[in-house]
Amino acid sequence: MQKLATTELANLLEKDALRFAEPMSLHTSFQIGGPADIYTLPSSQAELMQILKFCYTHAIPWMIVGRGSNLLVSDKGIRGMVIATDLYNKISIDENYVSAFCGASLEDLCNFCMVNGVAGLEFASGIPGSVGGAVFMNAGAYGGEIKDVLYCSKALNPTLEGLNAANPILHIKYDEHQFGYRHSSFQDNGFIHLSSVFKLSYDDKDHIAQRMQDLHEERWCKQPMELPSGGSIFKRPPGHFTGKLIDDCGMRGYQLGGARISDKHCGFIVNAGGATAADVMALIKHAQDEVKRRYDVDLQTEIRKVGDW
Q1: Which of 22, 47, 145, 302 is catalytic?
Q2: Do 205 and 122 fall into the same domain?
Q3: What's the order of all strands across the beta sheet hosting 169-173?
């Protein structure tokens, strides 16, 4: 497969944008994950479509990843092709409408909005993910969610029929996103998010910057930003706060292998040093079991488990 990919994709991608046996620990905020067989970094829609067609032609499994902030990759890695969106990251503005490609980081998007004096995305300024991942998950924090500011999106149907269509780009209206708590229609329909437009409001740059700074300081005070993690591990169960449930079970600071329940926020699991995906999964199960035993509450994971398990 490596020889095949080298031959057919070498002319399409820059040398460093085609890698083999690439450690996914380098591309996840957990700093955990075994090697991807093939790792590609398309920088345009055309390159993305060519990579997908290559995968279909040669029956190679594939998956799209953003900034890896909500992923737990198996210690065995990922078989087939990983398509990373990091280089597909253009951001532009037209009046108070900001367009961002899927690979743009939320940090870059929020800073762009601040510089251009448009407000509404401040809540996302500390979320360590990509625009594509944020739309996919309807990311949110501090009372704001992506659904509150999103206007529309563009997507790609990655089936052969979709890739070979006369006009392969799908225009997704707001209602078609079917947003819910940490949910969008992208989780159900299999479409690849390409870009989104956000409808924002004008505001003074200094006011926007101050709100971003205030949330940044609050996040660093309350969340374990100093250690690798996958963000909030569990969805919030109705009527409860996940961190409090886990804390009340006496699990603050509890550690299995290199994975530890954060001392700062019990809704986070951190990589305390040398953690494996197996360590994290064992700790997740232990927390779920304890909360179920003591409070009869089922904790559902927010983090996505991917790779060869």
Answers
A1: 302
A2: yes
A3: 91-94, 97-101, 192-199, 150-156, 169-173
The percent of residues above 70 in pLDDT, for the chain, comes to: 100
Choice among 182, 184, 229, 260 that is catalytic: 182
Residue 219 pLDDT > 90: no
The answer to whether the pTM exceeds 0.85 is yes
Residue 95 annotated as catalytic:
no
Domain boundary pick from 84, 116, 145:
84
Instruction: Give the pLDDT score at 202.
Output: 98
Contact, 130 vs 111, CB < 8 A? no
The C-alpha R_g of the chain, in whole angstroms, comes to 20
* Contact (CB, 8 A) for 237 and 294: no
Question: Angle, to 10 degrees, between the axis of helix 45-57 and the axis of helix 2-9?
Answer: 140
- Rounded Cα distance between 232 and 219, Å, is 12
Pairing assessment for the beta strands 229-232 and 268-271 based on DSSP bridges: antiparallel
Strand 118-119 and strand 201-202: pairing? Answer: antiparallel
* 302 tagged catalytic: yes
What's at 69, amino acid-wise? S
From 43, 184, 196, 232, active-site residue:
232
162-184 confidence digits (pLDDT tens)? 999 999 999 999 999 999 999 99
Residues 6+ apart with CB under 8 A from 232: 242, 267, 268, 302
pLDDT band at 8 (very low <50, low <70, confident <90, very high): confident
Which class for 74: exposed (0-12), middle (13-18), buried (19 or more C-beta within 10 A)?
Answer: buried
Angle at 248 between CA 243 and CA 253, to 5 degrees: 70
Q: Which domain holds residue 64?
A: 2-84
Domain count, the chain: 3
Domain end, chosen from 190, 220, 250, is at 220
Whether 47 is catalytic is no
